[in-house]
Fold:
Amino acid sequence: MIHILSEKSSVFNQYIAEIRDQGIQQDRIRFRRNMERMGEIFAYEISKTLSYKQVVTPTVLGEADTKVLAEQPVVGTILRAGLPLHQGMLNIFDGAQNAFVSAYRRHHKDNSFDIHVEYLSTPSLEDKTLILCDPMLATGSSMVLSYKALLSKGTPRHAHIVSVIASREGVDYLRKHLPGDNYTLWLGAVDEELTAHAYIVPGLGDAGDLAYGEKL
Structure:
């Protein structure tokens, strides 16, 4: 199942517009905060699909019956660009365990590149709900490799794959190459073009650089 949040009118689209705007996005703290806000909205939408249990909450005047999460998910991200989006998720799922994956592009002289995963930190994922977020879904290779790396630590009951801006090609790649079918895609917007250098058009540029500054 695929959910594309920008297809419905909401304040989410305001944040999408601001992170794309080449003038506004130069304000790094605002860029990070908008990513964080979108993480909060994604988390709220995902929360509607999770399991709940009934609890009794004592108040100063009596007791109240309330449905609360049966268990917290594991919230994961791909370093470094995913950190603001990840923080937004944690603002909602504040009792969640966390997973981190370091994946990067190793470029070659012919302008091709390979994706490498070099670091993994996660609790057991066996029979857990996993939320794996990364702001940009370009080719889809980083997400697939990161997800497969996480599977070495257990098979989730269900996975929610989250990206703010995706390419159509990246979405198709995920649907073909993600293991199993126990996952849901949550996307902010889907752009049709992917350049030869694997940049999404119109996209927004390099999310990691916009959030934290250019890297060597």
Q: What stands out?
A: The radius of gyration is 18 Å. The chain has six helices and twelve strands. Residues 2-212 form a domain with the Rossmann fold fold (CATH 3.40.50.2020). The first strand starts at residue 2 and ends at 4.
